[in-house]
Design a protein that fits this description.
Number of helices of chain B: 7
Order of helices and strands of chain A: HHEEEEHEHEHEEEEEEHEEEEEEEEEHEE
CATH topology of one domain in chain A: Sulfite Oxidase, Chain A, domain 2
Strand content of chain B: under 5%
Helix content of chain A: 10-25%
Structural class of chain A: alpha+beta
Strand order of the largest sheet of chain B: 2-3
CATH superfamily of one domain in chain A: Oxidoreductase, molybdopterin-binding domain
Largest sheet of chain B: 2 strands, antiparallel
Helix content of chain B: 25-40%
Oligomer: heterodimer
Strand order of the largest sheet of chain A: 4-3-12-7-8
Distance between the termini of chain B: 35 Å
CATH architecture of one domain in chain B: Orthogonal Bundle
Largest interface: A-B, 130 and 103 residues
Shape of chain A: globular
Chain lengths: 455, 237
């Protein structure tokens, strides 16, 4: 491919430079001094005399003497052809077909917190559909003073709300409950996204229809083949047995919105065009796509999604419903199993952290299997229920490392280890696997997905 | 946007709405909704319950809103064999990777969960389904998979009845309607809970967090190389 054309490097030379053996010794010492914590890059780490010397006279690249494409030759811009490997992928054996299925965002190739719209993971229960916005309506009814109907244009007239939030399928990581299975960060953590969402706050619409105080739940319904519906609790919500839903689950709806835009443009058909419900912090299944109806009620529906699908079968035999919040989670997306480290020297550990309860407060990184941790730098912005990028300098001396990240959110909740999670959820849980992800850096530079079972 | 900025903006919008004195469909409302929600007017239409009725198709766990009509096991068998069996199996055992209708008996299912045995593939309406009316809801709303939402109410009641019979929950003479479905006690109903809240309790230890060696587990050989073959491995990040 083009790598040599864009940035010609003589054969056998590593772009990042090759550490001399003296330098390796020095770095070993500095790692030891850091008491096994993440090795912080020493000042002037890239000593000029450590690096090989380029002597070949520079040549112009082919693009230097040609005319390029004119404006609007690509009316809707696309990534470079050299980025053709950065795509959504699915796992064939996971579902019976691609209509009721899921695809994964390639976070191993992304560098920020925003998911480009074309790479947003997909989850369908009856396939993606093309809803004509001029024919589409949203009805709001139930325990309200005045049932109302809105066109998409009506919704765009109303006071708008814009916020950046993550959206995560609760099955993110599901294939790893029973053991290591996916040697790819795309498949261990790709069922999530983060976008700037724009729409109308649900509370604005609630005011317009005059929601009855007796209303303790609502649900949205889609206009696709699944007509998916999920019950969402509000203050005072009780389950179908009369047991109160805890308060930490009954205020998320206040951030909910009926969205018509993501990252500044109209929703994509894959993500619910022309409008979708979005409840930040909750498992993505409640954020109904192709939204056509919202009903305010005083009890849950206990739908198929709530009784058969998005449930947790716990090791004491109970089937837990309505565990809606995606608790604090994090993952290192560089280095990760999708790429091999190329030579010793400077790297930067980078990753993403998020919590369905609010802002990320700390992310700690360990390179020794969780014995010692170093606080990573949180990259602004650090937002409510939003992916937060973190970084930590890393000097790789060629040794094996077990690297992992651990998020703490503003409520003080600390992301669990896999052992801790299995102790309470067992092995049959499928959903909400937010345990600390461990990657093993091999001496060869290969990065493997591993699990630590005893800690 | 900060809270203070938001309230300033909202106050501005409210002032505009009052100044225009358009007919408003905003009602006094100060309980569940955000008290800072802006006042709006002249947007949207009122709609009658009769106009909503064709979309009002959600049937609650307790039978609320179930439609008039009825279905039988025998009528359901014909529908099932034509529209459902190709995916859910002749006897509800599942086919081609689609879900089972009939899984492990609920006691066995519960025992598997307690023993840590993988029973995800053995879910069926006889273990993980709490209430019969929502089975009718799902069949009427979402099935058959290739032509969702095309069964009549009576056909959906019949398909529901047949599946309940396949799972030994009702006998072959059972008639499914809005009176009978809520009375059925589903085998798994007793297992459902909402014992919610954080159940893991990690602490933010920074130094010497444990003694000994981490037990590192890599991918089991038996699992096979499920992902690498599909990802085009690239040289650069």
């Amino acid at each position: 491919m083009s790598e040599n054309m864009i940035n010609p490097v003589p054969e056998g030379t590593n772009k990042a430079g090759v550490a001399s053996s003296d330098r390796r010794k020095f770095l070993r010492k500095s790692v030891a001094l850091a008491a096994g914590g993440a090795a912080i890059a020493a000042t002037n780490a890239a000593q000029a005399d450590d690096l090989k010397t380029w002597t070949t006279p520079l040549k112009n690249e082919p693009t230097r003497h040609m005319l390029g494409r004119g404006v609007v030759s690509v009316p809707y811009g696309l990534p470079s052809k050299y980025e053709s490997g950065v795509v959504r992928r699915n796992v064939g054996w996971l579902t019976a077909d691609t209509i009721a299925s899921i695809s994964f965002t390639p976070w191993q190739d992304l560098h920020g917190i925003i998911t480009p719209n074309g790479l947003h993971f997909e989850r369908y229960h009856a396939g993606a559909v093309d809803v004509d916005p001029s024919q589409h309506h949203l009805v709001i009814h139930g325990l309200v003073k005045q049932p109302m109907i809105f066109t998409v244009d009506d919704l765009k007239r109303l006071p708008s709300h814009t916020a950046i939030h993550f959206l995560e399928c609760p099955a993110n990581g599901a294939m790893e409950w029973r053991g290591v299975q996916m040697d790819s960060m795309q498949f261990t953590h790709g069922m999530m996204s983060c976008s700037e969402w724009t729409g109308v706050k649900l509370t604005t619409l609630m005011e317009m229809v005059g929601v009855d105080p007796k209303s303790t739940w609502f649900y949205g319904e889609g206009t696709d083949g699944s007509a998916l519906q999920r019950s969402i609790p509000m203050e005072g919500a009780k389950d179908q047995h009369g047991k109160p839903i805890p308060a930490e689950y009954t205020s998320h709806y206040q951030d909910a919105m009926v969205c018509y835009a993501m990252n500044g443009e109209a929703l994509r058909p894959e993500n619910g065009y022309p409008i979708r419900l979005f409840v930040p912090g909750f498992e993505a299944n409640v954020s109904t796509k192709y939204l056509r109806r919202i009903m305010f009620v005083d009890k849950p529906l206990v739908t198929y999604q709530e009784t058969r699908h998005y449930i947790e079968v716990l090791p004491n035999g109970e089937i837990r419903q309505y565990n809606l919040v995606n608790e604090a989670n994090s993952v290192i997306n560089y280095p990760c199993p999708d790429y091999k480290l190329k030579g010793t020297g400077t790297y930067e550990i980078r990753g993403l952290a998020w919590s369905g309860y609010g802002k990320i407060k700390h992310v700690d990184v360990s390179i020794d299997g969780g014995k010692n941790w170093t606080a990573a730098k949180l990259v602004e912005p650090v937002l409510n229920k939003c992916l937060t990028k973190f970084t930590l300098p890393f000097e790789w001396n060629g040794d094996e490392h077990l690297i992992m990240s651990r998020a703490t959110d503003e409520t003080g909740f600390v992301q669990p280890t896999l052992k801790q999670l299995r102790e309470v959820r067992g092995f049959n849980s499928i959903y909400h696997k937010n345990s600390i992800q461990v990657w093993k850096i091999e001496k060869t530079g290969e990065v493997k997905n591993v699990q630590i079972e005893n800690v | 946007m900060s809270k203070s900025k938001m309230s300033k903006l909202n106050l501005g919008l409210a002032a505009i709405a009052v100044a225009l004195t358009l007919s408003s469909n905003a009602f006094a409302f100060d309980t569940a909704a955000d008290k800072e929600a802006p006042k709006v007017s002249g947007v949207g239409m009122k709609i009658t319950d009769a106009a909503i009725k064709p979309w009002d198709i959600s049937y609650f766990y307790d039978g609320t809103n179930l439609p008039d009509g009825k279905g039988t096991v025998s009528a359901g068998e014909k529908i099932y064999n034509k529209d459902c069996a190709m995916c859910h199996g002749d006897f509800g055992e599942g086919a081609h990777g689609y879900p089972k209708m009939v899984g492990d008996p609920v006691d066995q299912f519960e025992a598997s969960a307690k023993a840590g045995v993988d029973a995800v593939g053995n879910r069926g309406i006889n273990n993980t389904w709490g209430n019969a009316p929502t089975l009718m809801d799902e069949i009427h709303r979402h099935m058959p998979f290739y032509a969702p939402g095309t069964l009549t109410v009576d056909e959906a009641y019949s398909a529901t009845c047949y599946v309940l019979n396949l799972a030994n929950i009702v006998d072959e003479n059972f008639v499914c309607d809005k009176e009978s479905l809520p009375k059925i006690v589903m085998p798994g109903e007793k297992l459902y809970t909402t014992n919610l809240g954080s159940d893991t309790h990690n602490i933010r230890c920074m130094k010497d967090c444990y003694k000994g060696t981490p037990a590192v587990v890599q991918k089991a050989a038996s699992i096979g190389d499920v992902s690498v073959g599909k990802v085009e491995k690239r040289d650069t990040h």
